[in-house]
Amino acid sequence: MWQRLLLRFLVALSALASIGGLLWMTFAPPPGMKATADGVPYFTPPVVHPVSGEAVPMETLVRHYKGGK
Predict the structure, then answer these.
(1) What is the pLDDT of residues 40-64, one digit of tens each?
(2) Residue 46: CB partners within 8 Å, gap ≥ 6?
(3) Quick check: 63 and 38 in contact, CB under 8 A?
(4) Scanning 12, 35, 61, 66, which has its CA 20 to 30 A from the CA of 20?
(5) Sequence spans of domains, the chain
(6) Quick one: three-class SS letters along the chain?
(7) Structure pTM?
């Protein structure tokens, strides 16, 4: 009988920890989750290439001007 109560307690504790962690990351994310290593915010839309008119990812543009590969 006490094993069943202990198992329920562990399940409830793990559910609370999971939900609490998800809520914490949603409302107070660490700075590393907001931008890439180059400083480009996640979910930035692509930019338009002025000559060809094609969409270029912002990350590619930043790497080009920083001199990266």
Answers:
(1) 888 889 999 889 999 999 988 888 8
(2) 55, 56, 57, 58
(3) yes
(4) 35
(5) 1-29, 35-69
(6) CHHHHHHHHHHHHHHHHHHHHHHHHHHCCCHHHCECCCCCECCCCCEECCCCCCEECHHHHHHHHHCCC
(7) 0.52
